[in-house]
Give the backbone structure.
Amino acid sequence: MCEATDAAQARALTSSCCAAVTMAALGTALPSLSPAKPVPRYYFHFSDGKRQFSDASGQDLLGIAAARAHAMQQVREIKAAMCHPQIQDLSGWTLTAVDGEGRTVCEIGFDLRPVRVSEDS
């Protein structure tokens, strides 16, 4: 199985190299490789309605959709960890995801419903 994979990789590399040589021979410019864009960092802050628990380290994620998915997963994990009988009412708890500039990306209540964010946040 490894030999088949190696052979397939060799064919793909050969094909890629042949295409590059052909493009160069025809005078077609090869596409330039742009420098990689930095992956954005998002921070996930929690609040119980009275206090805020800030995320100082953040998480590198590919974009807003990934940040929202990460936020939903964080809420699920915290709800599971806080299933102690004395902590039964999590209705006032929220998670706010912000980007590296401090702009709110999303805010999710612990009922897993999005919370409306004001336009000036």
Notes: Residues 2-25 form the longest helix (24 residues). The beta strands are 41-47, 52-53, 59-60, 94-99, 104-109. Residues 41-109 form one domain. The two ends are 54 Å apart (CA to CA).
